[in-house]
């Protein structure tokens, strides 16, 4: 009975696959697949009636320049207390006109602890500039969450919320340095 059941199940799977091949449900699934090819956008800067439309390639290049600036930030008094293994990801936002992009920066943070801390930041390219939206930094003893100019920390010693501008200088997090030194209050410094 086991082999007859498997044979019947195989035939049913083939029948369903044959019936569904080319159906709108499968087509929608493949268009949402992360493995799908990204839409190609012209690498040229296009000027249309006074408005600037930036290509995916240019937005990515500018985000990579931000990541490069992050490499110079010292996060504590040790000389090697810095961002490491920085990676960037840029994706177009569907239906945005003029084109807008969302970005992500992931990095390891080398601090004096038993393990490497991790940082993840979310950005949006709108109006010709990158904007730092928020992110998180996670270590072996604490987790920091950021949204715009606010932060919230959870640690073994307690938790607190506040504004970056009101935080004491003892709040040594990469996001604060990124928000004020690399960005201008969360807005990309661009001529």
Description:
With 191 residues, the protein is an alpha+beta fold. It is built from four helices and eleven strands. It has helices at residues 2-20, 24-32, 56-70, 174-182, and strands at residues 46-48, 51-53, 83-92, 101-109, 117-126, 129-138, 142-147, 150-155, 158-163, 183-184, 187-188. A seven-stranded antiparallel β-sheet has the order 3-4-5-6-7-8-9, with helices on one face. Strand 6 (129-138) and strand 7 form a beta hairpin. The longest helix is centred in the first third of the chain and has 19 residues, at 2-20. Mean pLDDT is 78; it is low at 11-50.
The low-pLDDT segments are 11-50
What count of domains describes the coordinates?
Answer: 1
Mean of all residue-level pLDDT scores: 78
Instruction: Please tell me what the overall shape is.
Output: globular
List keywords for this structure.
191 residues; alpha+beta; two-stranded antiparallel sheet; 4 helices
Produce the secondary structure layout.
Blueprint lengths: L1 H19 L3 H9 L13 E3 L2 E3 L2 H15 L12 E10 L8 E9 L7 E10 L2 E10 L3 E6 L2 E6 L2 E6 L10 H9 E2 L2 E2 L3
Antiparallel strand pairs: 1-2, 3-4, 4-5, 5-6, 6-7, 7-8, 8-9, 10-11
Task: Give a nutshell description of this structure.
This protein is 27% helix and 35% strand. It is an alpha+beta fold. The chain has one domain.
């Amino acid at each position: 009975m086991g082999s007859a059941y498997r044979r019947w199940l195989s035939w049913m799977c083939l029948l369903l696959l044959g019936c569904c091949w080319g159906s709108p449900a499968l087509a929608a699934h493949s268009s949402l697949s992360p493995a799908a090819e990204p839409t190609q956008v012209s690498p040229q800067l296009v000027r249309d009636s006074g408005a600037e439309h930036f290509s995916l390639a240019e937005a990515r290049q500018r985000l990579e320049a931000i990541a490069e600036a992050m490499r110079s930030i010292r996060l504590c008094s040790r000389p090697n207390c810095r961002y490491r293994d920085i990676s960037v990801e840029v994706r177009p936002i569907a239906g945005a006109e003029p084109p807008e992009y969302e970005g992500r920066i992931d990095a390891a943070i080398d601090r004096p602890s038993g393990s490497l801390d991790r940082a993840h930041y979310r950005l949006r390219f709108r109006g010709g500039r990158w904007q730092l939206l928020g992110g998180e930094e996670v270590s072996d003893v604490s987790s920091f969450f950021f949204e715009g100019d606010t932060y919230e920390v959870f640690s073994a010693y307690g938790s607190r919320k506040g504004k970056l501008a009101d935080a004491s200088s003892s709040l040594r997090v990469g996001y604060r340095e990124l928000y004020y030194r690399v960005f201008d209050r969360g807005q990309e410094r661009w001529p």
